[in-house]
Write a structure and sequence with these properties.
The complex is a heterodimer of chains A (73) and B (136). Chain A has one domain. Chain A has two helices and no strands. The longest helix of chain A is centred in the middle third of the chain and has 28 residues. Chain A is elongated and about 65 Å long. With 136 residues, chain B is of the alpha/beta class. Chain B has one domain: 5'-nuclease (Rossmann fold). In chain B, helix 6 crosses helix 7. The radius of gyration of chain B is 15 Å and the shape is globular. Classes of the chains: A mainly alpha (73), B alpha/beta (136). Chains A and B meet through helix 1 and helix 2 of A and helix 1, helix 2, helix 3, helix 4 and helix 5 of B.
Amino acid sequence: MEEITIKLDMPPEFEEEFKRELAKSIKELVNNIEFSIAKKIISKSQLTEKDAEEFSEKVKKSMHDDLVERGLV
Amino acid sequence: MQIAVVVDSNILFRILISQGDILEIIFNPKTKLYAPFKLKEEFEKHKKELIQKTRLSEDNFEKLVGLIFKKISFIPIEQYETFIESARRLLKNHLKDEDFVALALSLKTKIWTYEDLLFKIGIGLSTKEIAQKLSQ
């Protein structure tokens, strides 16, 4: 993986503010990268709406059965 | 403005086919997403079948699920079981969705869903509605 070094001449009185802003920007950058990765992977998915609905129904039934077993419904 | 919603299973599985609004909402820093912990367990139970149907490699599937699950707080039933009875009363003869409704009631929020009944009882939020709220 490539390493990038950025050097900035920062007056000491802005150091804390800079760190805060940098952390915020990095968080945003990571989120954007993760979104792009997810989008790219999903573009290859062959799952259909029908499949998604069937999985959802199966899962809901199982969740309901679990509540019955626990005596909660 | 932050939006907190409970994610229905019909949304969770649709993430695997959506490159549009659903995914954008998931990754929007203004959304706070919740789901019953049992949903995560059930999702993992169907992992093999999901990999087969999506035709994704196991590596890509794991990567994707990891990224999505990082965005959702999965809540154990012990934290909302006292709301199951109220959920049952709201849902009447509809023998599912108790977990999602109980969790939403406990968090005083709505459910991001495609389930018609949840809209009828006033607890459902559509993808379009959430996208609109986020753009305000």
